[in-house]
Write a structure and sequence with these properties.
With 389 residues, the protein is an alpha/beta fold. The chain has a single domain, classed as Aldolase class I (TIM Barrel). 37% of the residues lie in helices and 15% in strands. The protein is built from 11 helices and 14 strands. An 8-stranded parallel beta barrel has the order 1-2-5-8-9-10-11-14, surrounded by 5 helices. A two-stranded antiparallel sheet has the order 3-4. It is globular. The termini are far apart. The structure holds phosphoenolpyruvate and manganese (II) ion. The site of phosphoenolpyruvate has 9 residues, from loops.
């Protein structure tokens, strides 16, 4: 068991935000029991390897690229789609490495990114109110009672899809790690195993897990669960984050100050990053904590287009990264990485970029947030590479 286990309350005794209301708890128990007997999706030594890569990022000697779908879809898991995402991430990594002069560690939002936090538990259309879509791990996108009913059997399908995705990624030979939001704690706990040699606990569902901006409460179940695992972990920090909260997260999640253990993924919005980030970076740096800083220029820049589509402007995405890099340059700290939602498919979900995309109707496929398509993602990589020169 990790040294942290004794010092934090059991996550099961705390409030877990953003969990589904499973209609059949007995069935959930069965599925979770089954998962607890399955082999983990990733190994502890792979997780440790990512921690050492991220330690280099924290020291300013490497750059992190983290990207993939907002929400993976069980029906879209194919070797072709996986390879297309991987190819795009690798092309971006090559561009970023050339620009920064640093090795780039590539981490997909892939092989487990199936659960979504939502701003409201229900959705009403034409007078009918149904539970909101919470990711393919929980329910379906279709606006019917049956589709929206949380079904624990989906957790087993997510496990199988994640395993398959890892198998495809492993045959590519390239070094690529997996990550997802560690949202559904029953699923995560079922796949958490003590390492045979060290006895320390590892989440077996993915290499890096992150805590979302909505579930990073200090007294919440997510922070307590994450304190018990030894994987590299990240926390999303939105515009409401105070420096005191960031420092308290460090104390809870990285009490030993292990380089590579903790990444802060900042998503303040293009308008606010220059105002909000400096104090955060200054105070964390002054504390001596070896945190890895990454920019998520997507989640603070979402708006609804007149057509009703949730979208993001390419210019805003670029502007937030520029602000992030400028703040770090001014403070002499390392702008360590980029976290983006993207797909190798030719979708029309974000507006702008050199191709000048503005017809969101043509191919809007995301079940949740809008992703950069391959053209937009490569253009972003080129422009970010220039900033890092
Ligand atoms: C996400 O990464 O899809 C997400 C929900 O992000 P955040 O927690 O930053 O809102
Ligand atoms: Mn998202």
């Amino acid at each position: 068991m990790s040294g942290a286990v004794g010092t934090v309350p059991d996550w099961r005794t705390l409030v877990a935000h953003q969990q589904p209301e499973w209609p059949d708890r007995a069935r959930l128990g069965e599925v979770v029991g089954e998962l607890a007997r399955c082999s983990p999706v990733v190994t502890s030594w792979e997780c440790d390897a990512l921690t050492s890569r991220l330690a280099k990022v924290a020291e300013g000697r490497a750059f992190l690229l983290q990207g993939g779908d907002c929400a993976e879809r069980l029906d879209n898991v194919s070797s072709r789609a996986i390879r297309s995402k991987l190819r795009l991430l690798q092309q971006m990594s090559v561009i970023l490495a050339a620009g920064s002069g640093l090795p780039v560690t590539t981490v997909g939002r892939i092989a487990g990114q199936y659960a979504k936090p939502r701003s409201s538990p229900t959705e009403t259309v034409d007078g009918l109110t149904l539970p909101v879509y919470r990711g393919d791990a929980v329910n379906g996108t279709g606006f019917t009672r049956t589709e929206r009913l949380p079904d624990p059997v989906r957790l087993r399908r997510v496990y199988d899809a994640s395993k398959y995705t890892l198998d495809v990624l492993r045959t590519s030979g390239a070094e690529v790690f997996t990550s997802h939001e560690g949202l559904l704690l029953d699923y995560e706990e079922a796949l958490t195993r003590p390492d045979r040699r060290s006895g320390r606990r590892y989440a077996g569902s993915g290499h890096l897990l992150w805590i979302g901006d909505r579930t990073r409460q200090l007294d919440g179940a997510h922070v307590a669960y994450f304190a018990t695992i030894d994987n590299p972990i990240a926390v999303k920090l939105g515009p409401a984050t105070t420096p005191e909260h960031a420092l308290a997260l460090i104390d809870r999640l990285d009490p030993d100050r292990r380089p590579g253990r903790l990444t802060f993924v900042v998503r303040m919005g293009a308008q606010r990053v220059r105002d909000l980030l400096p104090e955060l970076v200054e105070k964390v740096t002054a504390s001596g904590a070896p945190v890895t800083w990454v920019s998520d220029p997507m989640h603070g820049n979402t708006f609804t287009a007149p057509s009703g589509h949730k979208t993001r402007r390419f210019g805003d995405v670029l502007a937030e990264v520029a602000g992030f890099v400028e703040v770090h340059r001014a403070l002499g700290t390392h702008p360590g990485g980029l976290h983006v939602e993207l797909t190798g498919e030719d979708v029309t979900e974000c507006v702008g970029g050199a191709v000048g995309l503005d017809d969101l109707h043509r191919s809007y496929e995301s079940a949740c947030d809008p992703r950069l398509n391959a053209d937009q993602a490569l253009e972003l990589a080129v422009l970010v590479a220039e900033m890092l020169r």
